[in-house]
Amino acid sequence: MEHLEQLIPIAAGIMISPLPIAAIIAILLSPRAKANGFAYVGAFLLVCFAFTLVAALTTKGAGSGGSGGDEVIVLVLGILLTLGFLVLAVVSWVTRPKGGAEATMPSWLAAVDSLSAAKAFGLGVVMAVTNAKNIPLELKAGALIGASDLALPAAVGFAALFALAASLGILLPTLLASTGSHAVTRALTALKAELIAHNAIIMTVLFAILAAVQLSHVVAALAK
User: Fold this and answer.
1) Mind spelling out the 3-state secondary structure of the chain?
2) 88-102 tens-digit pLDDT
3) CB neighbours of 196 closer than 8 A, spacing ≥ 6?
4) Is the pTM of this model over 0.85?
5) Which of 49, 128, 201, 219 is the most exposed place for a label (fewest CB within 10 A)?
6) pLDDT at site 37
7) Residues 49-61: pLDDT tens digits?
8) 46-55, 68-77, 81-90: range with lowest mean pLDDT
């Protein structure tokens, strides 16, 4: 159970995802806002849950000969994630719009108004699977759950709670938009523009923070 507190910053790392959030905002500003919004959120949450649970079940008992095996799995994943997030931070910074150039809206984002609920669900799957940081973080979360050697119902429960927490970044706007408030609509419109304009900088900072968090866990593990 000692590793499970690490699930909180990992969930936060998934939750802060500019493009998936911009996509749900665009959906919520479209004609089929409610149905498409919940379809998109449901798909995103299910993908997160699936990857986390699979990782938890496949790593459960990996260290059954003693806690050393569990520690090695978590340590190796921590090192790989630290290096990976550092590389992603550099790439995101280098490829940011330069010289005052405006960030361009992805073409798929402009086509959100015409989506059906099924296509919104598919978009949620695509955004969950193709996000550069999400699957590695979900696998790390699953490994932490697996390393805790929980009973199956508890492992499923932790994976579900983690997926729910990681999806709050798109779930909360969906719940707020369902109220029909004009103030919420205006706020979402402004937020969408800001997320698109500053996506590269947000992701650079986020990748750097995630690398620092993972590095702190690696150092703590090595110091034991």
Assistant:
1) CCCHHHHHHHHHHHHCCHHHHHHHHHHHCCCCHHHHHHHHHHHHHHHHHHHHHHHHHHHCCCCCCCHHHHHHHHHHHHHHHHHHHHHHHHHHHHCCCCCCCCCCCCHHHHCHHHCCHHHHHHHHHHHHHHCCCHHHHHHHHHHHHHHCCCCHHHHHHHHHHHHHHHCHHHHHHHHHHCCCCHHHHHHHHHHHHHHHHCHHHHHHHHHHHHHHHHHHHHHHHHCC
2) 889 988 888 877 777
3) 18, 22, 103, 105, 109
4) no
5) 219
6) 94
7) 999 999 999 887 6
8) 68-77
